[in-house]
Amino acid sequence: MRKRSSMELSSLIIFLSIISIILQFAAYLFFTSPFIILGISSVVVILSIHILLEQSLTYKACTLYTILTLFISTIITLLIYFGADTKLLPFTKSLLGILALNWLIPVIHCFIRHMFDYGSRIEHFNSFYRNVNIIFLLFYITVLIYISFGQKTYPRIYPIFDSVNFTPFWTSATQIENYINHMIPFSDIFIYFISRILIYMPYGYYGILLLRNTSKFIWLIYLLLLPSTIELIQYLIIPGRCDIDDLIYGLIGGAIGALLFYLTNAIYRWVSGKNFLSKGSKARYSNKPLYF
């Protein structure tokens, strides 16, 4: 299959992005079930990515499509959120799901396509993966700062106490006790634990991706670096938010993120015979440096 010209490809990317947005928000307008909305959104993105890969033979087209759809859907979501009184398009969590899918589906689809490497040879996967993850990192850093230093960020889940807590698991035990005494629902405890672990999983994932060939000691120092830095800043500016539990859960979350990368790499290597994002040979146990 011949590669399309730059003009043809640009037009196709814009066309598919607009069609994707129209169909996604039409589903949001006409359906109330989040499963239907997110299902339609997923199918639209999958088909668009497939068409782009077949027509362009490069993952760079998927990068541009992902950026464009994310940008447009984010603008629309913000307009709906700040105009939440409108009856036509009220704000719901399904909008956040659409945003997540507009990033996640291209990443998963291109990962699977590159791993199996079927059909036409498609180029520039590493640059695609790097660029779409830069987008995610910008979002991740924003959320991490907001959660860590926002004065009124989910007070039931991220409470502000009168002083610093240096007693391990004291806050966790307090949450459990409050649940036993029917002072808080189980969902608060679940979110309390899960959110503190999930927020550091990307940190661990990207850390092992970049520091894969370093010693375990360096890796441990890295895992502790971000949680310790955040807790230190909290100690200086918001002492009531400084909690040693967050440091412990940050370490656990980072370790789980690292394991997630190892699992991803193991699956990729088992299927393709080479390390994920490696620049080198197809040797099953290649030690070539990673490109990211």
From TrEMBL:
Keyword Transmembrane helix appears in the UniProt entry: yes
Source organism phylogeny: Bacteria, Bacillati, Bacillota, Clostridia, Lachnospirales
Domain VanZ-like intervals: 138-263
Full protein name: Putative membrane protein
Organism: Herbinix luporum
Bilayer-spanning residue ranges: 12-30, 36-53, 65-84, 96-116, 128-149, 189-210, 217-237, 249-271
Superkingdom as given in the UniProt entry: Bacteria
Key words, A-Z: Membrane, Transmembrane, Transmembrane helix
